[in-house]
Every structure is written in C-alpha cells, then in structure tokens.
Amino acid sequence: MNASVTPSTVVPDADLYLPRMARILEILPMSAREKFLRLELPAPLGHRPGQFVMLSCLGIGEAPISISCGPRTDNILEVVIRDAGSLTHHIHGLKPGQYLGVRGPFGSGFDLEAWSGQHLLCVVGGLGLAPMRSLIQPVLANLESFSGFTLISGCRTPAEELYREEVRGWEQLAQGNSKVRVIRLVDRTDNQPWDGRVGLVTAPLHTLEMDPANTVVAMCGPPVMYKFVILELKARGLGDAQIHVDLERRMKCGVGKCGHCQINHVYCCQEGPVFRFDRIAHLAEALQ
Amino acid sequence: MTAFLVSLDAVSAWIRHLACGQTLYFPQQSGQSGLRFLPVDNDSEIRFDGYQPSLAPPGKKLAPAEEPLFRYRVGTDGIPVIQPVLDASPRILAGVRPCDLRGIHLLDQVNQQGHPDPHYLTRRQQTVLIGCDCLTPCDEHCFCDAVGSLRWRENADLFLTRIDGQFLLEVQTEAGQRLVANQNFPACPDLAGLKAHIEAQRAKPFGRQWHADAGRIPGIVASQWSSPVWDKHVERCFSCGTCNLVCPTCYCFDVRDDFQIEDPSAGQRVRHWDGCMLPQFAQVAGGHDFRPAPAARQRHRVKRKFEYLNERCATTSFCTGCGRCGRQCTAGIDIFDIVNDLIDHAEVTP
Q1: CA dihedral of residues A131, A136, A141, A143 (deg, nearest 10)
Q2: Residue in chain B nearest A224 by alpha carbon
Q3: Which of A87, B70, B221, B323 can pair with B306 through a Cys bridge, CB separation 3.0 to 4.6 Å?
C-alpha cells in the first residue's frame, strides 16, 4: 500500500474558503480615497499585528485587506479601504448594518515579543499607516516593554493624512514622554494648512538620534519607499535582521494555494506579508 | 500485491463494466483536437495504441477549470447565508500515463501542504487511478524519462502494461483490489520474468534527454536569474497562458463572484484557472505590477517547475515531462528547450 502518496489520510478544512459574515458598525470617510470601517464579527478575530484578512462582498468579490486595529479580545475588526477597484469602490458605498465577508486572519505578522527591550522605529508611507496602526496600538499600550518608540509617518499632501486625530494623540503622548517620538511629514503642502514637516520619510533618518545596536525597524508603504529607507538605515549602521517590511501582493486565497502572491519561491500570504528583511533581501522580486 | 495477465478485449470489457457504476474518464478522440479524458459511455472506444497526451491532463478533473467554492443567499433580513459546496462524487481516471500519475502526485502534495484544500482533496479521496505504462515515447515532445516520470506508478491503484498483445494488470491498493474483485482474471504466472521482459522492450533512450545530469538542473536553473536565455525564448511569446492551462502541475487560480442575473441576492463564489504567464497575474490594486515583463513571467514559470517547488514537495522536478506546453504552444516555445539552453549557457558561463 502507498499510504504516503495517497491523500486519503489528510482531513481538509472544509471552511477554508468560507467567509464569516461581519456587520458594519461604522463607515467613515478618512480622505478623498480612503474610508474607515469598524466591523463586528461573530467571534474575536484573534490576530497579531501585521496580519491581514480576506474581505469580501458577496456578488462583488474578495480582496486581501490589512488589519488596522491592534489585537483585541472583543469581536471588533477595523480596516481602512482605499477606493481602488470594483470591490473597494462598492464597499465605499455601504452603510452601517450591512454585511461583509471575512476570512482569516492570515500571514505572519509582527513578532512583538522578539523586540522586547528595544527601540522600535516605525517608518510609514501613505496607506501603510493602516496596517502599522495594528502594531502601534499595542506598542503604545505596553511602552514599558520597549526602550522607546519612534514613528515617522509621511503622505503626499495634508488631505491624504490618515487617522489624523489619533496620530495627534500619539504626538501629545510624545510631548509628555521622552520615550516616544512622532514625526509627521507631507511631500508637499498643496497650500493646505499643515503642522508637520515637509519632505520624504527618508529625510529625518539622516539625523535621527538612535542607538543602531538597540533599534528594530518596522516599515510599511509603497514599494519605492522601501529601497530608499533601507539605504538610509544601512548608512546609519542597522543590519538587515533589524529591519521588518510589510509587503503588498495580490493574494487571491490567503492560504498559499492560488499562486498570485509568490515572491520567487516565497508565498507572501504564508511566510509574509511581514518579513524580516534578511530573509528576503536576496530575493530579486521582493522590493521591485 | 496481485498481478493478472489479461487480454485487450477483457480489459476493454472490464473498463466498460466499471463505467456503468460510476463516472469513468478515459482518453478518447475528440474532433480534431486529439485526445481528451471524457466519461466512458456505450459508444466510447477503449483504445490504448497511438496514445498522445490528452489536450488537458487528467489531473485537471480534480481541479476543474471553474468550480464553486460556496453558494450564498442574502435573506430578507439582509443577513447573507453561506452554503458550502463540495464535490464528493466518486470517479475513476483510467488510462493515466506515468507522467500524469506523477502530475497528480505533485498536485496531491501542494494541496495537502499547509492549509489542506477541501475541494481538491474531497474529489481526490473519491478518485481511483488506473495507470497505463508507456513502452515507447508518445511523440517528439516527450521528455518524461529526463525528469524521472517514466517509471512513476506509486499512486496508481491499478497499473496496466501492454505487452505482447496482452495486458499485465497490477493491483497496487485496496481500492484497486475492489475494482478487480469477481473478475476472474488469470493470474500472471511469472511477474518478475515478465517485468524484466517489459523493461527490455522499453525504448532506449526514451524521449528527449537533458544536456546535463538531471540532478544538476535545479542548481543550474537557480543560478541563472539574469540570462539571455529568458529573452531568447520569450521573443515569440504571446503571453496567452496556454502553457499554464495544459500543464499537469499548474494549479494557480483566481476567484470571482457570480450573482444570479435574475436574482442578485443569490449567487456563488467561483474559482477558475489562472496562469502566471498571463499579464496582470502579479498586479496589485492601484496598478503596480510585480512581474510586468513577459520574460520575468516566463522565468517565474520555469523556476516554479525546476527550482521553487522542488524543495516544498521533496521532488527533483515539478515538471512531469509530458511535453504538453511545448506541443500546444502557438509560438512553438518549449520548456525543454529553455532548460537545455540554460544548461548550455551555464556550461559556457559557469
């Protein structure tokens, strides 16, 4: 008998592709292109920072969406949706009380416990703040575990800034706590009121006070941002193993089957989307 | 395990008999397009000679071109109800050649790993495989021996070899044993002697052969990220994805929702074949494409078959050597030529 080659003993997960239905509690505009959604699930999601869900609207489709809230014990899931395709456009038109499908959580996420005692530097570009908030919330709630926290968050214009009130709350926290620093930037002000800096997220890295031996970096933003931020970090003496990147790919299943998110031999949805950079630095397709 | 020596007529009658009880797929001529694995009925011809690989490999019966993942209906209270769909109907795939048996074995591996896929595995667990040996290469595209598929038979429940006008029928599993119960097939008197005779009859060399030892190929493919070979072959490529669709080990899919046009409150989520050679396969929302160049997509496909998936599935090659991609390619691009060119290129620029 060839029990090893016939799959008769494997018990598949019959629910693998079945979404749980989540009710929209709140849907609020954040900018011209982004909306914030608070959803109520049938049971707690039980996620780690940096994981994602497959979010769907029945009859329209399904897409991978970053989890935007820190780990929680209640049934709440928060996401930020950019109007970028047919599904996300449809979601923008939904109202509280309507339902979305949720599968997950999927992916690796950030390993906060491994960073205990270190200074955490988060570098964020644009919509990258949505997933990074799932990391920032538990870090700020547990600051005693870290020697410090710095957020460098950039977007193109003041109108595109996400989580305005919350980020200002973090800034206020920084004013009373020397362990916390918050730097907000825009590429250009477009003649709109702006109380932060003007420039790219790489600019503050030149002069940022830091102890390279005791710093870990988490970053999330557009592909072009990673290359330049990593160059700056290396110039400051950080190694690849201290840098963590959150990558975007077109997951269609979230469970390592559909093939869409493959980076060379790595499945972004399984081994990622958060990677320690030394584990993917040699992959030619990682930061294209 | 048991082995029988059976006449062609008895094998044909037995296959027809099996097809009465459940769906049995056997390679049959279909118009001008060659062989296809189609359900056997009263009019079906059971032929083993002149075999050429079917248009689509038989493993695709386990992961059809389009299949529902679930059905849904939104109730009057606005709450959607999900109804799971799993196809657990029993089936037999008969006349499956060694390359395609190995293709199914490799699909088994990827569908069992990590999160086991319920749709594939439910079908697979209800499927009996009747393999059929090849003693001569099917045509000039075949290279099954080069990738280690020619003598693959491990996952066949029953295995047929045509020799001297008869069939050696070997029973390899209990599921296979059930299919030959009460058939009163005559036992094979000297199995070892007959097997030695079969090996002596097998063509040598069998099909196309690599320019290097097969064991070196994953290393050679892995060593060549930037190579003129990638541009040479892709010049003729239309990015049509035919090579993906006919490949016995391509399993990538896309997912979409189909609502009922007459009742949009109900519908189904469907997955359907997708191919890494198709444009936009690696495109994300907003338009950024992580593999926009056809040469990069072809490199990805070749590396999947000879490098990326080998380690995950503990195999030397994720290509089965069936030759379908080269045989079906409109532009005559053949993965065998690409890999041999990579070998040649590695020899001159180590």
Answers
A1: 150
A2: B288
A3: B221
Distance between CA atoms of residues A255 and A234, nearest Å: 33
pLDDT, residue B197, reads 96
Q: Other C-beta atoms within 10 Å of B312: how many?
A: 15
pTM for the predicted model, two decimal places? 0.93
Give the burial class of A24: count Cβ atoms within 10 A of its Cβ; 0-12 exposed, 13-18 middle, 19 or more buried.
Answer: middle
Q: Nearest Cα to A55, choosing from A248, A263, A254? A: A254
Distances (CA, A) of B238 to B23, B193, B250, B329: 37, 50, 18, 10
B308 touching chain A per CB within 8 A? yes
Shortest CA gap A84–chain B (Å): 6
pLDDT band at B70 (very low <50, low <70, confident <90, very high): very high
Q: Average model confidence (pLDDT) for chain A?
A: 92
B173 — contact with chain A (CB < 8 Å)?
A: yes
| pLDDT number for residue B349 | 62
Least confident of A1-10, A159-168, B44-53, B263-272: A1-10
**Sorting pLDDT into bands at 50, 70 and 90, what band is A7?**
low
Q: Tokens 């499945």 map to which residue?
A: A267
Task: Indicate the SS3 state at residue B72.
Answer: strand
| CB A52 within 8 Å of CB A127 | no
Please answer whether residues B49 and B8 qualify as being in contact, where contact means their C-beta atoms are separated by less than 8 angstroms.
no
CB A232 within 8 A of CB A265: no
DSSP secondary structure letters along B216-273:
GHHHHHHH-SS-HHHHHHHTT-----HHHHT-TT---EEEEEEEETTEEEEEEEEEEE
Q: Does residue B205 belong to the interface with chain A, where contact is any CB pair within 8 Å?
A: no
B259 beta partners: B267
Give the mean model confidence (pLDDT) for residues B310-319: 85
Backbone angles phi, psi at B263, to 5 degrees: -150, 85
What ipTM describes this predicted complex? 0.90
Q: How many CB pairs under 8 A join A and B?
A: 156
> What pLDDT, on a 0 to 100 scale, did the predictor assign at position B115?
92
Report all structural domains of chain A as residue ranges with CATH numbers, in order of start: 7-106 (2.40.30.10), 112-279 (3.40.50.80)
Confidence grade of residue A14 (pLDDT, cut at 50, 70, 90): confident
Task: Say which residue, A268 or B206, is predicted with more confidence.
Answer: B206
- B271-292 pLDDT per residue, tens: 999 999 999 888 888 788 888 8
Instruction: Tell me how far apart the alpha carbons of residues A40 and A56 are, in angstroms, rounded to a whole number.
Output: 14
Which residues of chain B are within 8 Å of residue A17 when distances are taken between CB atoms? 69-70, 118-119, 255, 269, 271
Sheet containing strand B91-96, edge to edge, reads: B3-7, B166-171, B158-163, B127-132, B91-96, B23-29, B35-39
